[in-house]
Design a protein that fits this description.
With 421 residues, this protein is an alpha/beta fold. The protein has eight helices and 20 strands. A hairpin with a 3-residue loop joins strand 2 and strand 3. Helix 2 runs antiparallel to helix 4. The protein is globular, with a radius of gyration of 21 Å. The two termini are 23 Å apart.
Amino acid sequence: MGNTAKNKIIERPQIEKREVLKIVDGENFTVTKARLKALDDYNDIELPQKADHLWRYSKPGNFFPSSYRDRIYDALKINIEEGIKTEIEFDCSGTINFVRSPQFANAKVEVEDLIISSNVPIGIAVPSSHGMFEALNMAMWTRGIYIKIPKGVQLAEPLFLKIKTDENNPFVRIFIDVEDSASLSLIETLETKNRGRAVIVSEAVAGNGASFNHVQIYNGEKGDTHHYTHRTIAKRDTRYNMVTAVTGEGNLKSDLGTELAGEGANGTIRSFTILDGDSATDLHTVHHHTAPHSTSDIQFRSVLLDKARSANTGLIKVEENAVGCEAYQVARNLVLSQDAKVETIPELEILTNDVVCSHGAATGTVDKKELFYLMSRGLNENNAISLIVEGRLIETLSLLPEKIAGDILELFQPVFKRVFF
């Protein structure tokens, strides 16, 4: 990234107890208690060094927000309107605009200000002990959204969630509750006002027999810097599919994962990254099997041009009691420039013998036979490469409903046009 004021390395902030206590007046005591524990965790966790496992490719000082002192909570204004498709614009400067279709209105889908929601187990999937930035977020967050899909509600239409972070409110939390036997397809996009920094923590609980398709799209602008952590707890016989698609000129460090906590749970992560210029992404994924007979699959696909940089670390962890599990991960990287750089590190932590696990990785350039085949049918080189890359995106989207996959593919057409033509 360029050496601008927005991208300068910031020293680790020193947070005092009084700063935490003044954020929210009259919030739920459980939340206040969690904040104070998080402050202790934050002060106990040492600043990560380059030798530390998850910080080999990123500098922590690049991700500390520069403007967040003296924040006092003021309630989010929630506007609800009826519409053709369901969209939520979560503007962290102070509003939630919820446009809902008749299906979502009839299903009584709940959308609330997380900080005043009652009985929400904040920190159940991403506790403050997770890491330094997660602890900092838990102690200092002032903006949050809670989305609940009631038990048994099957939503055929997708929910579009646009998160607009704000430099003055850089600590954001999201909590998604898909109750037993419910289904949800969520398409989430992220952007920053004024090209700033944000530390975001997202948690989800998918109940017994639930189905949750979760799409995250990041198209950062130059100067955007995001640290993003997400965990889903998948209960018995749950199907959780995550698709993450990353492009643009921002700087993203993300830590995504699923705890397969119920017997028969299935979790899938598909990642597609296309970067050019001097943009960078650092992606860590985890599938943590804590229940028997659960299954998981992680697939990375990266396409890099110019001086772009991408790092992928993927961990499969199987606990001793999680017998009969199957877990797979594979990475396929396409490097289209001598100056681009990609690192892929697959990892296994298996504590039982009764499992089937595998991992693999491959990095290379465009297959000359594929390129020759397409060019022999009238395509020029750029068109041919663009078509090959588009095919990788289509593979990434293959687990999603056809209409949703088509919508996402359409969103990426301007990216292909900018990069290849």
